[in-house]
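Single-chain item
Fold in token form
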Amino acid sequence: MRVFGLNWRIIRALLSSQYAHMLEYRAEIALWALSGVLPFIMLSLWSGSAARAELGLDGVALDRYFLSAFLVRQFSVVWVVYAFEEDALLGRLSPYLIQPLHPLWRYVAGHLGEQLTRLPFAALIAALFFVIQPQAFWVPSLGGFVLAWIATWMAFAIAFLLQSLIASLCFWSEKATALERLLFLPFLFFSGLLAPLTAFPPAVRAWVQWTPFPYLIDFPARVLSGDPVNLAAGFAAQLGWVLLLLPLVLLLWRAGVRRYSAMGA
């Protein structure tokens, strides 16, 4: 915390202000929550496909996996690169840089405020899913829920650091979001959003596990749904990606701020 110049008083102020700000846009956030129904679309496609047996999941397990993928996605989605690029282009970044608070914490607080606002909408969608698919209803154990909660937070941390790394390129380019769109393609296919990782051939699966993408959706979704998963390997991989990305973000940020300052900001 000291590295970023943050204390608990500032944390409370940031979270309360950002949550109040997000409440003003709760109708828009409801639409964002509804726009994340891709896992349910994929569930309907896989349920009617003859290739469903290749997933290694029966009907109920498949329902629970895609519902879990939806919930994990709701609370790990990141948009910092878009907000940062807009702030840099409109000049809002300059006063942030001279304040005794690392600007990235503002975006962290904004994401957390949005997640709190999303919570009732995500719960409502999950409840509707159980009404339609009552056989898929389950209540995770306390230990399983805590592990899934930690895995989802780690997924959020990885996604935030990945986008922060790209956002730092705004110091050199006005279109860093174009790079984020390129990153979205492998995320879409390899994260588990379209299909569980078990759907891939073993050689592809072995390669994909060395990337951060399976630990953004597939791993936390499996933990939440109660599927067999190697917890030690999964959490170790998530922690490893956080420890790898964090110093890269800090180094690129410092280099970008020096260049930004040199331009007269």
Notes: The chain has a mean pLDDT of 82. Residues 37-98+134-262 form one domain. Residues 231-262 form the longest helix (32 residues).
